[in-house]
UniProtKB/TrEMBL annotation:
Organism name: Pseudooceanicola pacificus
Protein name, as recorded: Translocase
Highest taxon of source: Bacteria
Residue segments, region Disordered: 82-107
Length: 337
């Protein structure tokens, strides 16, 4: 059963006006980074569950229940620390009363293990990154691209392959490892000119979720794109619908995570709108906290609009409820082609 609650809402907007609605519902069936040159528009959302603010009437809100590759674009440039020469005791050294200095093993982790990354363009304006750091197996790696940041884990061979939605036609990607090493690569992605993209990203245990309702679709239908129904770039290439990309390893406690929604706005086969919203689940780990997230949105001019958000969470008696932020990103208005 879904329970509707009214909550007092105070919203402070700096530099931009954003329509934000909060919906709390319960449903037993529902399962530092590189800085962008784009100015950040700060939107602070303040939630007051016991003050004198006016109640937000949620009766009119629809309740939801959860329920051909391109050429190689560029080679990565290895970033490696200088080799440390080994110090060894020569066998013919004169004996003394003191014990000989221990033999130190050569440091091969720098000279023989360069960190490299390559990029290949893929359908849907995606870029496939292949990172190799053979002397750092199972280590964390953080990827950076146009203000978007996400953290993954290398496999037992110190390698990882990840498909990333490009946010610029001339796309540059950076991989950073905890020891200071890293790699950089680039790719040209002309197909991005036919797409719109919206990014939601956060760090740590946030419980954020992006939802896209295409052409007035209801929740849990084919037109509802979210982590439970991501769709694929193939539909976007045919102009039939969008898709969602999930980035980052959510098994890490301090991971950077991102969700990227893509829609082929320039090749859409029908006119209409895509309604975007962000949902936050209240959990034992985030109740009473102030959660932070960032949204990025591409535009036809190539500029990336960036917006920072702070979401104060309700008390732990609301665990299992959801907050829905309406229109934290611009809805997509589509013309038929």
């Amino acid at each position: 059963m879904i329970i509707i609650r009214k909550i007092a809402l105070a919203t402070a907007v700096v530099s931009t006006a954003v329509a934000v609605g909060f919906l709390m519902q319960r449903d037993a069936d529902r399962s530092a980074p590189l800085q962008s040159a784009t100015p950040v528009e700060e939107t602070v959302l303040s939630l007051d569950t016991g003050g004198d603010g006016a109640d937000l009437d949620l009766q009119d809100i629809i309740l939801t229940s959860a329920s051909d590759p391109g050429p190689l674009a560029g080679k990565g440039r290895a970033v490696a620390a200088p080799t440390v020469a080994p110090r060894m005791t020569h066998p013919s050294a004169e004996r003394s009363d003191t014990a000989p200095a221990p033999i130190e093993a050569p440091d091969v982790s720098r000279a023989d293990c360069p960190v490299t990354m390559e990029a290949v363009t893929r359908p849907g304006a995606m870029v496939r990154l292949d990172l190799h750091a053979p002397c750092q197996p199972l280590d964390r790696v953080t990827f950076h691209h146009e203000g978007m940041t996400f953290t993954e884990v290398l496999d037992a061979n110190g390698a990882i392959r990840v498909d990333v939605p490009a946010l610029q036609v001339d796309a540059v990607f950076i991989a950073a490892l905890p020891n200071g090493e890293g790699a950089i690569t680039a790719a040209e992605v002309p197909a991005l000119k036919f797409l719109d993209r919206a990014v939601l990203q956060w760090s740590g245990i946030g419980g954020f979720e992006m939802h896209a309702l295409e052409y007035g679709a209801d929740f849990n239908t084919d037109g509802h794109i979210w982590s439970g129904h991501t769709a694929s770039p193939g539909a976007a290439e045919r102009g039939r619908g969008g898709f969602l990309t999930l980035l980052g390893d959510d098994a890490l406690l301090t991971s950077n995570l991102a969700q990227v929604y893509t829609y082929p706005s320039a090749t859409a086969r029908a006119a209409g709108e895509v309604d975007l919203s962000i949902e936050v689940e209240v959990t034992r780990t985030n109740c009473t906290d102030v959660l932070k997230a960032t949204s990025l949105q591409t535009s036809p001019t190539g500029k990336i609009v960036k917006q920072a958000m702070q979401v104060p969470m309700p008390g732990c008696d609301a665990v299992g409820d959801f907050l829905v932020l309406n229109n934290p990103a611009n809805d997509l208005k589509l013309a038929s082609n």
